[in-house]
Amino acid sequence: MSPAALSLCILLQCAATLLSPAAGGNTVLKGADPGLEELSTNGKPLHGGVKYNMRKSLDLDQEGCYLQTGKKECLEECGFNATAKTIFIIHGWTMSGMFESWMHKLVSALMQRESEANVVVVDWIAMAQQLYPDAVNHTHDAGLQIAGMINWLQDEQQLPLEKVHLIGYSLGAHVAGYAGMFVRGTIGRITGLDPAGPMFEGAEAGKRLSPDDADFVDVLHTYTREALGVSIGIQQPIGDIDIYPNGGDVQPGCALGDVLAVAGNFMEVMKCEHERAVHLFVDSLMNKDHMSFAYQCTGPDRFKKGICLSCRKNRCNNIGYNTRKMRKRRNSKMYLKTRADTPFGGYHYQMKMHVFNRKQADNADPTFHVKLYGAHNDTANMFVDIHDETVGLNLTNTFLVFTEKDIGDLLKIRLSWEGDSETWNSVWKNIKKNFWAWNAKPPKPVLAVRRIRVKAGETQKKFTFCAQDPAAIEISPGDSLTFVKCRDGWEVKPRKRLAI
Ligand SMILES: *[C@@H]1O[C@H](CO)[C@@H](O)[C@H](O)[C@H]1NC(C)=O
Ligand SMILES: *[C@@H]1O[C@H](CO)[C@@H](O)[C@H](O)[C@H]1NC(C)=O
Ligand SMILES: *[C@@H]1O[C@H](CO)[C@@H](O)[C@H](O)[C@H]1NC(C)=O
Ligand SMILES: *[C@@H]1O[C@H](CO)[C@@H](O)[C@H](O)[C@H]1NC(C)=O
């Protein structure tokens, strides 16, 4: 059974109580418990209460402070500042009944970035630590209660709704959706961090997070790989903008081998990919100087081909906390590649090269690699992935190159044709072609590349690189060609608008 299938099985079928919480306890977010008695005197069932732990100090082991609807004194005690931003963090389904370690990281990153904001951890653990379908059923109620809290804050403190930001992870994203739907007025922003898929995929807009739930709804999708017909993270776009890092299905650093080597546990594989959305968001709070961009594209395959790296007409956006508000459009999907660890951002290049086949080397099935030389550093030799297709001959090939480090201004590109031509494919083509002379050694295929056009996603600059020696543009297996900035006009200036 694949790890994805296994984790889904655990998610959907196994009782939460069967899985004992990890030893060691959870010291994150200690706080004065408002007391179960108080909750029950509110007429709420004991297990049904949502608690609001407002963080006051960066030291997360410090006691928090609880907000309670109807209790004005709590607002003062907690130092609630109604004119500042108010951020609610909403956790997801839980087996352990404890906050997971990401909560600590997210809270501290938010408090550092927005020192004046009211950062409130929504604790609906009692309703979320249930069989998955029951926890799903409780998202409605949890959202309703949060809406009640926000309505009370509006009445009591004239809380401006446009400054309210709900951040929900997994099942918590749909709780945020309900809260936004039930609240009086329109919440400023909801961020869905890999919103849960099972029982929400394909559901009508009123029963999941949707663009109607806030003025701006942005979603990060990190674990949409399907197993047994469902995926842990929802696949369909459900926001004004839906960002699918690394295609939204496989996250770098989360391969079975990578994770098992560190954690030795299948659940960790699921956690790695699902939770990646949270870590990308934390990264966007911490690394303001190096923002990661996502680019609008109709699908992951086109993105991987390097076709979509445009920022024109709002086609790109920052990811995570820095995402700029934009209206929902017909295609809300955006893509980017990331590194395996923080800082997750890297550098995208779109490259286009026309591969000439002048010598009828129709048997050529080239495997190209490129190496980029920058002002600061060079990259490794990287496979030119035309994405499951062979390099097109007499055609312009577009491909995406992603570098993990900033190599500075691109100075030089080396294109190499690895290995020899004797792939099974080319041998077979040759046998078919030269049937009567099949034992004759096939001629070495010769192709030619004159220039490579480059567009850097992060800077949106376009350049043209020409063969270093314009007289030598031919390439064969085992050879390489070097391209440098063309002598004149290598920087392609953006087309100017005609002034009328
Ligand atoms: C409340 O927040 C506003 C806006 O962030 C800020 O200008 C003000 O100083 C804060 N008030 C207090 C008492 O911290
Ligand atoms: C959800 O819970 C309510 C009671 O709280 C119950 O009536 C309803 O049948 C539940 N729905 C599902 C799908 O379990
Ligand atoms: C590519 O074009 C050349 C002429 O420029 C032609 O001789 C050759 O047959 C073409 N090859 C393919 C595969 O179309
Ligand atoms: C260039 O990259 C290599 C390999 O990643 C690294 O060891 C080296 O420190 C880098 N050099 C500079 C100047 O950044």
UniProtKB/TrEMBL annotation:
EC number: 3.1.1.3
Keywords (A to Z) from UniProt: Calcium, Disulfide bond, Glycoprotein, Heparin-binding, Hydrolase, Lipid degradation, Lipid metabolism, Metal-binding, Secreted, Signal
PROSITE patterns: PLAT (PS50095)
Coiled coil (UniProt feature): none
Binding site for Ca(2+): R208, D213
PLAT domain location: 347-485
Bilayer-spanning residue ranges: none
Signal peptide extent: 1-24
UniProt xrefs under InterPro entries: AB_hydrolase_fold, Lipase, Lipase_LIPH, Lipase_N, Lipo_Lipase, PLAT/LH2_dom, PLAT/LH2_dom_sf, TAG_lipase
Major localisation: secreted
UniProt-recorded Gene Ontology molecular function terms: heparin binding; lipoprotein lipase activity; metal ion binding
Family listed: Belongs to the AB hydrolase superfamily. Lipase family.
Protein's UniProt name: triacylglycerol lipase
Organism: Zoarces viviparus
